[in-house]
Amino acid sequence: MVHHTRLIILNTTKIGERSLVLHALSPDWGRRSFIAAVPRGGGMALFQPLSVLDAEVVENPKSDLWRAHALSASHPLTGIRTSPAKNAMTLFMSEVLYRTVRDGACEEGLFDWCERSILTLDALAGDYANYHLRFLLEFASALGFSPSLEDLMPFADTHLEELRTLLQADFASCMLLPLNGAARNEIAELLLRYIGYHAETRIEARSLRVLRELFR
Predict the structure, then answer these.
(1) What pLDDT, in 10s, does the model give residues 3-34?
(2) Structure pTM?
(3) Domain ranges (residues) in the chain
(4) Counting Cβ atoms within 10 Å, is residue 162 exposed (0-12), middle (13-18) or buried (19+)?
(5) What is the architecture, at CATH level 2, of domain 2-73?
(6) How far is CA 121 from CA 36, 125, 135, 165, 205, in A?
(7) Please, how many CA atoms are within 13 Å of residue 130, restricted to the half-sphere of its CB?
(8) If you compute the radius of gyration of the chain from its CA atoms, what whole number of angstroms results?
(9) What is the DSSP-derived secondary structure letter of residue 102?
(10) Most exposed among 54, 84, 113, 215, judged by the fewest C-beta atoms under 10 Å?
(11) Nearest residue to 164 (alpha-carbon basis) of 174, 154, 172, 175
(12) What is the CATH number of domain 78-214?
């Protein structure tokens, strides 16, 4: 059976010279891995973190690793792919999703929320240094945790007031919240601990260090 679907790329694993395992989110099956051929002529750009792809998926009754082909970009994501800072942010976002959402997990609405988050970042012209913090709070809500200030207090340390703003202010005000790179990192780390506590996992996002350097 062939399914027409979309995939959000979280990570890839190379298999031999011409094949990749795509670790992806889909609206139909949630987090799932697929095998795909690498297009000739250097088509790896298609599989960058958080690329949104149209795909045909062929079920394999003998394997859980179904084949994805006829792959093409659903959105060009020009605003992201032409910006080193936005690319670094998508690397962080995809790493968090990859390390948190388990294979087989199918949270209702998670794919659509994730796609909206990608397109929002793509469209922002500036003032997005805090975007990954808002992303983490919304991710917690998408997973069903719905964080409140009271919930975050045990993790907040010295950042309770910044968390209050991130939770209660509108999107534009959150993006304009004055923070330096160190404070952003500390808030991101405490939010990862909060999400990890509820998801019963430890989330270590190595890409967070890059954001600290980019958004000092």
Answers:
(1) 999 999 999 999 887 899 999 999 999 999 99
(2) 0.93
(3) 2-73, 78-214
(4) buried
(5) Beta Barrel (2.40)
(6) 27, 9, 10, 20, 19
(7) 23
(8) 18
(9) P
(10) 84
(11) 174
(12) 1.20.1440
